[in-house]
From TrEMBL:
This is Iron complex transport system ATP-binding protein. Residues 7-250 form the ABC transporter domain. Pfam families: ABC_tran. It comes from Fodinibius salinus. It is a peripheral membrane protein. InterPro entries: AAA+_ATPase, ABC_transporter-like_ATP-bd, P-loop_NTPase, Siderophore_ABC-ATPase.
Length: 339
């Protein structure tokens, strides 16, 4: 059974209208035809300046399209009043929170404003929805604290809770993991994926976290430097080369076999690497960082064998008829660099 289409675009062009002495609009992206469906998490990826934030804001009705149209559940967004938009789509933007003297609970409760108005009192049903949003994001233990006295990771979860309290079919987030450390970035992505699947809401987020997006997203929207948006399942976009092409740079490569980016270095001698799976994974990273090409076929002058004994790793470095045992990765790299 197909999920409900929450947001769709037809021949959409995004950008900025003429300003000042300009005679023509600044087009960031064009011919954009995408669909956001309920129950899926979609990650919007692209190089810096490719138009991710502009697309998010256009889909939310905060920027007018230059051409084409945006539809919310089949209705043209331009024909909807602001309150109607707010009852269908909630947004979490990158703007820093500056409001003080406001508790976490009060901020989450603001999510009900499209139904109550800014100064409307909450009904019993409103309070039930606010409590559900708080429980769903796991912020119960600090709901009474001032919003300016919580960490960045906690604040981002509060903003997601506010969007949930708005009780919309779609949630749009612009770089929700920005300014967060790695554990909080992972936690936010895991939370958004869980919410999309459990609540059947459509969740779209822009991010620079390419590795997390590949693991968490049901669908990727890739926006390239020409402003074109290509959509698909993450693995399909990796295997057909689209993902790699969008992020192609002179300074790094995307390795399809590992799903990670590798830095370019002047090529050193190739190394044949074998041994324990975990040890081989991390040894490959180290060798490639040092500029060696790691091969799966024997026949190279340099060979490395990784051995594991309990939680201890060791390496045999073989060059010709000489074998050297190394007890650490650093010792192995030093041995390679001395050759």
């Amino acid at each position: 059974m197909d999920n409900q289409e929450i947001i769709s675009t037809r021949d959409l062009s995004i950008g900025f209208p003429p300003a000042g002495s300009q005679t023509s609009a600044t087009v960031v992206g064009s011919d954009i035809n995408v669909n956001l469906q309920g129950g899926e998490i979609v990650c919007l990826l692209g190089p810096n300046g490719s138009g991710k934030s502009t697309l998010i804001r256009t889909l939310a009705g905060l920027h007018r399209p230059l051409d084409g149209r945006v539809q919310l559940s089949g209705h043209n967004i331009d024909e909807l009043a602001n309150r109607e938009k707010a009852q269908q789509i909630s947004t979490v933007l990158t703007d820093r929170l500056t409001i003080g003297n406001l508790s976490v609970y009060e901020l989450v409760a603001f999510g009900r404003s499209p139904y109550t108005g800014w100064f409307g009192s909450l009904t019993e049903q409103d309070e039930e929805i606010v409590s559900w949003a708080i429980r769903s994001t796991g912020i119960e233990h600090f709901v009474d604290r001032d919003v300016l006295r919580i960490s960045d990771g906690e604040r981002q979860k509060v903003m997601i809770a506010r969007a949930l309290a708005q009780d919309t079919e779609g949630i749009l987030l612009d770089e929700p993991t920005a300014h967060l450390d790695l554990p909080n970035r992972v936690e936010v992505m895991r939370l958004l994926r869980k919410l999309a699947h459990q609540t059947q809401k459509a969740i779209l987020l822009s991010t620079h976290e390419l590795d997390l997006a590949l693991k968490a997203a049901d669908t990727l929207w890739l926006i390239n430097r020409k402003g074109q948006v290509i959509t698909g399942t993450p693995e399909d976009l990796v295997l057909d080369g689209t993902f790699e092409a969008v992020f192609e740079r002179d300074s790094f490569d995307f390795d399809r076999s590992t799903g990670s980016f590798t830095l370019h270095h002047p090529q050193k001698e190739p190394v044949h690497l074998t041994g324990d799976t975990v040890g081989v994974f991390w040894t490959r990273r180290a060798l490639e960082r040092e500029g060696h090409r790691v091969t799966e076929s024997n026949g190279t002058e340099l060979q490395v064998k990784v051995q594991q004994d309990s939680n201890t790793f060791s390496w045999q470095f073989i060059k010709g008829n000489t074998t050297t045992r190394c007890e650490s990765m650093k010792a192995l790299l030093d041995e390679l660099n001395d050759r």
